[in-house]
Amino acid sequence: MFSDATAETRSVALRAVRAAAALCQTVQADIDDTVATKDDRSPVTVADFGSQALICRALQQAFPDTPVIAEEDSAMLQTEEQAHILEQVVARVQAHEPAATAESICRWIDHGNADRYHDRFWTLDPIDGTKGFVRGDQYAIALALVEDGVPTVAALGCPNLPDNLDDPTSHGQVFVAVRDEGAMQFPLSDPDADGTPIHTRDTAQAEEARFCDSFVSAHSAHDKAKEVGDMLGISAPPIRMDSQAKYAIVARGDADIYFRLPRPGSDYTEKIWDHAAGRLVVEAAGGRVSDMHGEPLDFTHAPLLSENTGVVATSGAIHDNVIQALADYER
Ligand SMILES: Nc1ncnc2c1ncn2[C@@H]1O[C@H](COP(=O)(O)O)[C@@H](O)[C@H]1OP(=O)(O)O
Ligand SMILES: [Mg+2]
Ligand SMILES: [Mg+2]
Ligand SMILES: [Mg+2]
């Protein structure tokens, strides 16, 4: 399905995300005492730092000249107060990179601290949905290459996502997408398994749609999504889920719409690493992604999506209807 042009990029991204997913799974199995609180009061864990260290290390080795814009930095790890977190990060990373030291790990993490737009850069959320991760629910490891402002290659790891939403017993996929070429899912449990192509649902009538939104009500206006869903005639209950796993379930046809609608009075600006990989996975699988006004997501103001308000992803054919319903709702 994928052309040879992106073979090395895809394979480095896929291997790095698989290693980070394995690290996250071992931390999640034993989550106590691995969580700290950042200056903005949001949680960060040993796994966020460990995941960013492993992925940035792999990117730096393979593509030394391509900047990385990632969520975390090592500053708080280097404080005395968080020495116990750093110690655990070192132990977790050494399981994958035996020669790693506290110093090299902090350097790898900070390789992800390019802070402005470039014509070609990687963007990484080492754990997207940290609150879900800490709760034992959904989270994602989201990596995308952005070229000329558009995501072109993505690897989105979803270690807790069931293969089938109605049967939570088997789970864990990584989604790989290439712009204009398609999207595939690979089981995390078997590095040798072939990928399976994924496609959005061919839903033509909005009333047949299922929509998903954030689990955390502070991240997205649940009531607005519900009311717009009612206007579209949607009767199925919303799927509430943490992280970019929401993009993945739209991409593979478990849901038709992902609503991320700002809460009234919120001054939160979305970050590029929360949307670059997910957007590409949905678009390459046949869907559409825009902001809530139908405008394309603009990654040229990295690290912020400062030109956009809200995000809407759909299976494709119903996108214009959904955007129209949002405009009618706002009126
Ligand atoms: N007030 C907010 N509004 C919208 N998104 C937020 C807000 N605060 C944090 N986020 C981000 O939302 C993402 C997860 O949202 P969800 O799981 O609901 O889709 C995370 O990346 C999280 O950032 P962070 O990574 O700093 O925690
Ligand atoms: Mg994160
Ligand atoms: Mg995030
Ligand atoms: Mg965070």
Word description of this protein:
- The protein has 331 residues and is α+β, with helices and mostly antiparallel strands.
- The chain has two domains: 4-197, Fructose-1,6-Bisphosphatase, subunit A, domain 1 (Fructose-1,6-Bisphosphatase, Chain A, domain 1); 206-330, 3-Layer(aba) Sandwich (D-Maltodextrin-Binding Protein, domain 2).
- Helix content is 31%, strand content 23%.
- It has helices spanning 7-28, 46-62, 83-94, 102-110, 130-135, 222-231, 245-251, 276-284, 319-330, and strands at residues 35-37, 43-45, 68-70, 120-128, 140-147, 150-164, 167-178, 182-187, 196-197, 211-213, 239-240, 257-260, 288-290, 311-314.
- The protein has a seven-stranded mixed beta sheet, sandwiched between helices.
- β1 and β2 form a beta hairpin.
- The protein is globular.
- 51% of the residues are buried.
- Residues 125, 128, 274 line the site of one magnesium ion.
Kindly, what is the distance between the CA atoms of the first and last residues, rounded to a whole number of angstroms?
Answer: 44 Å
Classify the secondary structure makeup into a structural class. alpha+beta
Low-confidence stretches: none
What small molecules accompany the polymer chains? adenosine-2'-5'-diphosphate, magnesium ion
Overall CATH class of the largest domain:
Alpha Beta
Biggest sheet: strands, sense, closure?
A: 7 strands, mixed
β-strand number: 14
Question: CATH homologous superfamily name of the largest domain?
Answer: Fructose-1,6-Bisphosphatase, subunit A, domain 1
**Rg estimate, integer Å:** 19 Å
Number of helices: 9
String of helices and strands: HEEHEHHEHEEEEEEHEHEHEEH
Query: How many domains make up the 3D coordinates?
Result: 2
Order of strands in the sheet with most strands: 3-4-5-6-7-8-9
Strand content: 15-25%
The best one-word shape is: globular
Name the average pLDDT.
Answer: 97
> Which percent range fits the helix content?
25-40%
